[in-house]
From TrEMBL:
PANTHER family the UniProt entry points to: COILED-COIL DOMAIN-CONTAINING PROTEIN 25, DUF814-RELATED
Domain of life per record: Eukaryota
Domain NFACT RNA-binding: 1-92
Sequence similarity: Belongs to the CCDC25 family.
InterPro entries with a match to the protein in the record: Jlp2/Ccd25, NFACT_RNA-bd
Protein known as: NFACT RNA-binding domain-containing protein
């Protein structure tokens, strides 16, 4: 089951998608939209998190609050990442480049 979240109100009207295992992550990759931004904990396993931008927006339009929401979700859903203080989160445009 893919999870859907709404970003905090001050971050804007965005839907955040998250897969909890490799099967759900593959579905998210397979059915992604061009306006999706993908988040993942760098060099550790974690959930895949996507935020769907509004049409016409670019990666540069992501607010600090929205970045934080997505980064917190991938960290919290990483077996290794949620046990350490500092992690790196990578994010990129879909399709994964």
């Amino acid at each position: 089951m893919v999870f859907y979240y709404k970003a905090r109100p001050e971050a804007g009207n965005y839907t955040i998608f998250m897969g909890l295992d490799k099967h759900e992550n593959e579905d998210l990759i397979k059915y992604g939209f061009p306006e999706d931004i993908w988040f993942h904990v760098d060099k550790m396993s974690s959930a895949h998190v996507y935020v769907r931008l509004n049409k016409g927006q670019t990666i540069d339009d992501i607010s600090e609050g929205l970045l934080e929401d997505c980064a917190q979700l991938v960290k919290a859903n990483s077996i290794q990442g949620n046990k350490v203080n500092n992690i790196d989160v990578v994010y990129t445009l879909y399709p994964l480049v």
